[in-house]
Each structure stands twice: as structure tokens, then as C-alpha cells.
């Protein structure tokens, strides 16, 4: 069993004015000039490379960190690299107000926990806070207190997460159905 | 009582489906491009031992980004795909073919009611003929290559009615901008849509492609334009078989209904930093420009080439401005040459007509902008830095061509008498 409760330091992805940064598209996350890259270990250094104010994210991020992002995160292209660049940096989970449809699938299929949390930016969280996310219930805790109730992960999401990724899920009874 | 997506999904799974339900969806077509393709091959080789394709006849590579390969990295990547295709018996639409989704339409590989997926976020362009198309990442597509199916959450459907009359110089692109201005960047987020109304009925196939190409920019999964006679006969001609449309039931359930009035529509544009930041061209008229790009999956059809030629005929592009034109496919490109549009383009001066493909959307072709460059472009995205450090204003081909002649943003009436 993979852990159902994740603990980590968060990065609250805000714009230059400290506000919720919406509509961050995949070209801001992982620019198209790096699309030829197929090796995941080379992808981390380009994460957020075209996102104003976050260009140095790869140096700042640590293994086990959690991203908290705004609305329609990952809009735009279908590139898996825009997810894999975060996995390469060891990002443990992505919590967001909402996600671009293709991006959401790409996160789920890679086996990375994705939590939909509309309204999370009003919860008072700030970068550097350490939180605990319960993937089954959607409860987010800070300092032992519940500070936000997000949507629990769906069954297919949980199944893929537990299997490891889409390919492993495809070998399970559920995935063969 | 089903919407179009529910009907198509029911026919490609275990039967009746409900919004919110997760289903296994059978796929009629699955493709990967020169971007994503090598990653797909890598996943397949890593995760499976041989027997990589459920059905090579339904599996394609379509090269359209860096065509022919502009860098060694892309040359290597394309060759990985070609070799894999040879090994497995799947087909390649190579660097001469043009934009993959458009090739699927032209070659009769998809039809109304088909399910198709590929590594292209504008894959939902197939909604233009009433097919289900979906862009996906390379893991999803590798799984689709191997199994011929994908997991999918049945989306809710919204109904969008577009009514009203407009005339030249307003075009399908301006109707599309009107819809985008109304819905915004997440107005369709995670949903399917169906377009209705007299303004939609009148759209040509090329106009439908333009409208459908912007579904992703509104956050949509798929937006269907129910096929009319013109579309059905196009598909019949291309598939060589009788074809039926898939339509919604009269009592289908919609999550919401939106009415958009396009009566007397004027030319519109998508201003930085996002495509849904829509303004009338008249508001910024006179803005100096450096370059114009006409092409992409949004406005690279023959009708778009014709719209540009109509404006350029007998005129000359302003000195210092460069106009680049990239037809969507080989078929469009050949027609531009054979029917003499190429002469109009050349006579207008300072024009580059390139081989078919995606244009500047991913650094492989024209449509890129340097520092401080202001470009008018018929592509579909203008996010900061995507096509270079300059600024991209999205416009119709007619507005782009007219502005190239004047050297500043203007509407076509200024140059066509």
C-alpha cells in the first residue's frame, strides 16, 4: 500500500503581486523548446522555466515538497513533460483549485497524487507551511488542525496511484476489465 | 436522452453511460506526433515485451511540428518513430503530410462518431465533424497504442447557441473569438459542449475546424458541431462510404445553456496574455506591427488561404513587415500552388510561403517572435513566452493580411475596395 496521508512543505504558486496565479499553461511550466527531451532525469531543471517569478524553482524545490496551484493549472498542451519535470524534482503531490483536463489525466496516469481543492487559496496557507493531506478524505491539516476540506481522490485515481502508474494499473484486474 | 458525447461513449464502451462515470473507452484511432512520439515508443519498450500495438491499422505517427526536422534532436526523434513503425507495421504520415488532425480529416480516417486520441492538445478539433477527439500525454497514448482503449470520465455537456448574421470582413475566427470572450479560459473546464444555432449551421467545414480548434483554450474536453449535409458529403467522399452523423437526443440533459449573439459581428482579436482576452480590432487599430503569421491548426485551411489572398491581391506588404504563410496540410499547400494563390502571395512581396505543418507553436517552424516583436498571428495561443519573447495578438487571416499591407493593425475594408 502506498501512503494515504502525505506530509510535506508547500509551495503556494502566486503571481508577482502575491495573488493566486491562474491559467498557468504548459508552456510556462515546461517550454516547448525542450519538448525533444525524453529522459525524465533531464526534465527537472526546466520546471517553471517560463513562469514569471518562479524560474528558480528547480533550485529551491526539495524532495517531498507539495505544490499548491491556482485555477486551470496546466492549461494548454498535452505534454507529459509538464508533469514529469515536477516528478523529477521529487514533488510529492499537486493540490490545485482546478486543473486543465489533459494535465489532470497526465498527473493521475503518472501515479502522482492530485487533489482538487477549489477555494484553497482562501485558507491562509503560505509557502513553507508544512501540511498533511489525507488522499482518501481530502482533509488538509496544518499544525494538527483541519484547515481545508478538498475533494477526495476518485476511485480510478486511487487505483492508479496504488498500482504505481497507468501501465501497472493496466495489469490489475480493474485495469483489464 | 443522451448528449452526443454520451451516445458516442455508449457505442464505444459497455453501453449506456452517465456523466461522472468512469468508463473504458474503445478507440478507433490513436496517433502520436514527432513531439510525444519518441516518448510513447520509450514507454512501450520499457513497460511491455513486444506486441506493442493492439492494432497497427488503427495506429499512426503524424509528424507536424519540426518538419522537416530543423534540429538534430528532432531528426533523431523522428527516426525513432519511423523505425518503430517499420518494426510494428503502423503507418507514418511523414514530414511532408501536414498537421496530423487535419490529415485524419482529409484522409477519411475519422468520421462522425469516431473516437480518436493523440499527443496534440488540439485533437478535439475533430469535434468539427462530430467526432470525439482527445489530446493526451505520452503515457496515455502509449497505453492506447498497446490496448486500443483508455479510461475516461464521462463529462457533462453544455449547450451553446450561437445566433445572428454577420458579413465580411467578420469570419468564423471572429465568431470563435466571440464565443471565447463569453466563456473565458475556463468556461468549458472539464466539460463537453455542443454548438447549435443558425450562425453555426452556416459555418463551412473549414470554419468549423477553426471554432473546434479553440475548445482547449476554453478548458473544454470536446465541443461538437453537429454535422450538416456539406460535412457529411465531405466525409463520404473521403471515406468512400455512406456516413451518418451522431446527434443528441431531443431530451438530452445539459449542465447549462448559453446564448451568444453574433449579429453584426465585427473583427475581434485575442490579446496577450491569453487567447480568451478578446477585444474588438477597432479598439487597438493603428498599433504598429512587425510581422504576421497565417496558418496553424486554427486557420491553416484553404478557406483561410483564400481569405488572405483576397485581401493581398493587388496590394503589397509594407516594407519592414514580414508575412509568413504556412498551409495546414499538403493538400491545402498543393491547392494554394495549383490555383494560383501562391502568385498572389509572391506578388504581394515580402511573403514567405512554407511547406505544410503546425507553424510556430512549438519552435519547429515560422511564427516565432523575437524581443519586442509585435506579431499578428492566426495561431491559437498567445501565452507569454510561448512563441518567443515578443507579443502575439491573435487575429483572423483577413485582418492579418490587411494589417501586413498597412504595417499596423487594421481591418480589411481599409485595403479591399
What does this structure look like?
The complex is a heterodimer of chains A (177) and B (417). With 177 residues, chain A is of the alpha/beta class. Chain A is built from 7 helices and 7 strands. Chain A has one domain (5-171): Alpha-Beta Barrel (Aconitase, domain 4), CATH 3.20.19.10. Chain A has helices at residues 26-29, 57-60, 81-88, 101-109, 155-163, 166-169, 173-176; strands at residues 5-12, 66-69, 93-96, 114-116, 130-134, 139-142, 145-149. Chain B is an alpha/beta fold and 417 residues long. Chain B is globular. Chain B folds into 3 domains: 4-153, Aconitase, domain 3 (2-Layer Sandwich); 157-261, Aconitase, Domain 2, CATH 3.40.1060.10; 271-414, Aconitase, domain 3 (2-Layer Sandwich). Chains A and B meet through helix 1 and helix 4 of A and helix 2, helix 3 and helix 5 of B.
Amino acid at each position: 500500500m502506498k501512503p494515504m496521508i502525505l506530509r510535506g512543505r508547500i509551495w503556494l504558486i502566486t503571481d508577482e503581486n502575491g495573488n493566486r496565479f491562474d491559467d498557468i499553461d504548459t508552456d510556462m511550466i515546461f517550454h516547448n523548446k525542450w519538448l525533444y527531451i525524453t529522459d525524465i532525469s533531464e526534465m527537472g531543471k526546466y520546471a517553471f522555466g517560463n513562469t514569471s517569478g518562479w524560474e528558480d524553482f528547480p533550485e529551491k524545490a526539495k524532495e517531498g515538497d507539495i505544490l499548491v496551484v491556482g485555477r486551470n493549472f496546466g492549461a494548454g498542451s498535452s505534454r507529459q513533460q509538464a508533469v514529469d519535470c515536477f516528478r523529477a524534482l521529487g514533488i510529492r503531490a499537486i493540490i490545485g483549485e482546478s486543473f486543465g483536463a489533459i494535465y489532470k489525466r497526465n498527473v493521475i496516469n503518472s501515479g502522482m497524487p492530485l487533489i482538487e481543492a477549489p477555494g484553497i487559496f482562501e485558507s491562509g496557507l503560505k509557502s513553507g507551511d508544512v501540511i498533511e493531506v489525507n488522499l482518501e478524505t481530502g482533509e488538509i491539516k496544518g499544525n494538527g488542525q483541519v484547515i481545508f476540506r478538498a475533494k477526495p481522490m476518485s476511485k480510478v485515481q486511487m487505483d492508479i496511484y496504488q498500482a504505481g502508474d497507468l501501465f501497472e494499473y493496466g495489469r490489475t484486474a480493474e485495469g483489464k476489465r | 436522452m443522451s448528449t452526443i458525447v454520451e451516445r458516442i461513449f455508449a457505442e464505444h464502451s459497455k453501453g449506456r453511460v452517465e456523466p461522472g462515470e468512469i468508463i473504458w473507452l474503445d478507440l478507433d484511432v490513436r496517433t502520436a506526433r514527432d513531439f510525444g512520439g519518441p516518448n510513447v515508443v520509450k514507454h512501450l519498450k520499457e513497460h511491455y515485451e513486444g506486441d506493442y500495438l493492439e492494432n497497427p491499422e488503427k495506429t499512426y505517427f503524424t509528424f507536424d511540428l519540426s518538419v522537416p526536422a530543423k534540429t538534430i534532436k528532432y531528426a533523431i526523434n523522428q527516426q525513432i518513430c519511423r523505425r518503430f513503425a517499420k518494426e510494428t507495421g503502423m503507418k507514418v504520415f511523414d514530414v511532408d503530410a501536414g498537421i496530423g488532425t487535419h490529415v485524419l480529416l482529409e484522409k477519411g480516417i475519422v468520421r462522425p462518431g469516431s473516437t480518436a486520441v493523440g499527443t496534440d492538445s488540439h485533437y478535439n478539433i475533430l469535434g468539427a465533424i462530430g467526432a470525439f477527439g482527445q489530446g493526451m500525454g505520452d503515457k496515455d497514448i502509449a497505453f492506447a497504442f498497446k490496448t486500443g482503449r483508455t479510461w475516461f470520465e464521462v463529462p457533462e455537456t453544455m449547450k451553446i447557441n450561437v445566433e445572428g448574421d454577420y458579413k465580411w470582413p467578420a469570419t468564423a475566427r471572429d465568431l470563435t473569438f466571440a464565443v471565447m470572450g463569453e466563456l473565458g479560459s475556463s468556461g468549458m473546464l472539464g466539460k463537453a459542449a455542443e454548438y447549435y444555432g443558425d450562425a453555426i449551421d452556416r459555418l463551412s467545414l473549414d470554419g468549423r475546424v477553426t471554432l473546434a480548434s479553440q475548445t482547449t483554450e476554453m478548458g473544454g474536453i470536446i465541443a461538437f458541431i453537429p454535422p450538416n449535409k456539406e460535412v457529411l458529403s465531405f466525409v463520404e467522399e473521403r471515406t468512400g462510404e455512406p456516413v451518418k452523423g451522431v446527434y443528441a437526443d431531443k431530451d438530452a440533459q445539459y449542465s447549462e445553456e448559453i446564448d451568444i449573439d453574433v449579429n453584426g459581428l465585427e473583427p475581434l482579436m485575442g490579446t496577450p496574455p491569453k487567447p480568451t482576452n478578446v477585444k474588438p480590432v477597432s479598439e487597438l487599430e493603428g498599433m504598429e506591427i512587425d510581422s504576421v503569421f497565417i496558418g496553424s491548426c486554427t486557420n491553416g485551411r484553404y478557406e483561410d488561404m483564400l481569405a488572405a489572398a483576397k485581401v493581398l491581391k493587388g496590394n503589397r506588404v509594407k516594407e519592414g513587415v514580414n508575412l509568413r504563410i504556412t498551409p495546414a496540410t499538403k493538400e491545402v499547400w498543393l491547392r494554394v500552388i495549383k490555383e494560383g494563390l501562391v502568385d498572389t502571395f509572391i506578388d504581394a512581396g515580402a511573403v514567405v510561403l512554407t511547406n505544410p505543418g503546425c507553424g510556430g507553436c512549438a519552435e519547429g517552424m515560422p511564427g516565432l517572435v523575437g524581443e519586442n516583436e509585435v506579431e499578428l498571428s492566426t495561431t491559437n495561443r498567445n501565452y507569454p513566452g510561448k512563441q518567443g519573447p515578443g507579443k502575439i495578438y491573435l487575429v483572423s487571416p483577413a485582418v492579418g493580411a490587411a494589417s501586413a499591407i498597412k504595417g499596423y493593425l487594421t481591418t480589411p475594408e481599409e485595403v479591399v475596395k
